[in-house]
């Protein structure tokens, strides 16, 4: 197959579904790690087309969602300073900190700018040598290499007024944390193909063997998800637990050597807090000692931040797959994309946003019939094409 439409082909999807239905003999719980995969599943109704014995649990792989509140509050404090130009991808601007977000900082006079690449922030730093330019570097293994390269360039070019506020996280330690949690129900993983295209698959065989859990690396189109489910279920039914690459068109076992070398040079592994989950050992990156001068936390001495999570937000349970978004009391009522209480409702990869956008409102509607008619409670930005692939 060559073109993206071919990975949405209804006839091929039907065949994969038939295969899965014919294979399953008992209940299995699979976790899709990445928020992009969650959106594909909900948008195309894939979970509803699978045999009822298969449950898809939504994992913590949304970079915006897992960025800890403390880091958001540090971003807000730095962005409020008059000497600072604070640069970020657009989806971070609406993520609520303790009481406000970056949009609010901008409305209060802060110089907050949306950029499309960390290199844009570096260009802004060169154009404004009398200002401090900070880029908000968050995300998984996919966004870490360009951020590392930007810091490398800043050092090489001698741009002293550029710094990075870093909150990068890594997938394998999160899988380890999920599998060792007493409440874990996950029996197989659909691993994120784009992460493996950078990092390779080297860390997964040991995890699969130790936890006796199949890990299938897969992509983001409907057929990718169905093929990932098919391969995971096949392993589970056979009692196998190996790493399987179902995304060979993008993933090589060794990953991307140039990106890995850049990560190795600029970052070092550290413990990292995940929003709603807590600290996971060795689950993140920070700038290594050689690049400490470009670390915004170090440069602006933002410490002793007191954070305040909304008590009603259950995004931690959503991110761990313990509840579905519409089981949260606030879902679709006090928490909507327009007025989000938690990052999982803001982010384009958040599970709460996926359930809201693609009309998985039924539990909230049944629980709160007095909140209005269907028209009154309709999503603010629901896409029209939200229909199953077959
Ligand atoms: S629906 Fe809103 S309040 Fe509930 S878990 Fe999701 S983000 Fe938090």
From TrEMBL:
The UniProt record lists the keyword Aminoacyl-tRNA synthetase: no
Swiss-Prot/TrEMBL keywords: Iron, Metal-binding
Pfam families, alphabetized: HypD
Metal-binding keyword on record: yes
PANTHER family: HYDROGENASE MATURATION FACTOR HYPD, HYDROGENASE PROTEIN ASSEMBLY PROTEIN HYPD
Family statement drawn from the similarity comment of this UniProt entry: Belongs to the HypD family.
Protein name, per record: Hydrogenase formation protein HypD
Species this chain originates from: Streptomyces goshikiensis
This protein's encoding gene: hypD
